[in-house]
Design brief:
The structure is a homodimer. Chain A has about 170 residues and is an alpha+beta fold. Chain A has a single domain, classed as Aminopeptidase (3-Layer(aba) Sandwich), CATH 3.40.630.30. In chain A, helix 1 crosses helix 2.
């Protein structure tokens, strides 16, 4: 069992980006999990992760940053009650429950911000650990988009749309 | 039967916006079909429809603008081979096959631009005419997002994710 009780999750500060950067860079450059252009510059990734979302958080343990996630509105107008999040755990911290801790935190934060549901638009089928975790956290696979993601090694692979109604409380 | 043979579809010009504006305004303000903030200013709607997409088109017949659509990349990175379109027909031109003509045109244009698939992210369940048309054009309902759209009269209603593989040729 992993003890995640001493993981603290807090809003990201501007200066956190420099610490997060190697992790963000490696995950985005790999191009196998996020529908983000792997060639984006550091400044564009900073804007995408730290500035454009409604809020960005970091997971911290003993002063070390283990991961980060963003929370944003998934669609506008009639879809504005649904939010979207993206989570990245540093390579050194994988398998320690950081992603689960961030996912739970994000659901709580989303409810607090007034969102009623959370949607993941493009969960790459090869990202089996993420899929298992989101399912365990109560997200349903609403649909599978055939060949919707070009994986750098596996070629065209399906991507899932996953969704959870957050309902009341928290 | 509707004769759509004399509908011409061409790239929108800057000055078309003023003609399209009443139609765009009415559809977006109604808030019952597009996940776009109904309160957006005219300038924001101009940017959203005319400037931010990869391309914007108008459907024209005898010099009259009957409708418009945009075409853009739906996701980045590994998802960049999937495009997204939005179509709006002027109230006076509904039932004349304009949406179908625009949808067919968009598939051809998308292929020409190198896209391999087209995805609609939020087809509101009450928009039955659109659903029937996209199905008839070969789009599959990949998933139904429960209560994902707040309809101004019907309340929370489902929204569909629809997808079509464009494959080769045109």
């Amino acid at each position: 069992m992993t003890d995640t009780s001493d993981i603290t999750i807090r809003l990201a500060r501007t200066e956190d980006f420099d610490v997060l950067w190697p992790t963000l860079r490696d995950v985005i450059r790999a191009g196998d999990t996020y529908a983000i252009d792997p060639q984006l510059s550091q400044d564009r990734i900073r804007a995408l992760w730290m500035e454009e979302p409604r809020a960005t958080y970091v997971a911290e343990q003993d002063g070390e940053l283990l991961g980060t996630y963003y929370l944003k509105t998934n669609a506008q107008g009639g879809g504005a009650h649904v939010c979207n999040c993206g989570y990245i755990t540093s390579a050194a911290a994988r398998g320690r429950g950081v992603a689960r801790a961030m996912c739970r935190h994000s659901q709580h934060e989303a409810r607090g911000l007034g969102y009623l549901a959370m949607q993941f638009n493009c969960v790459v089928e090869t990202n089996t650990r993420a899929i298992a975790l989101w399912e365990d956290e109560g997200f349903a696979t609403v649909g599978v988009l055939p060949d919707a993601f070009l994986h750098p090694e596996a070629g065209y692979v399906p991507a899932r749309v996953m969704f959870k109604w957050l309902g009341q409380g928290g």
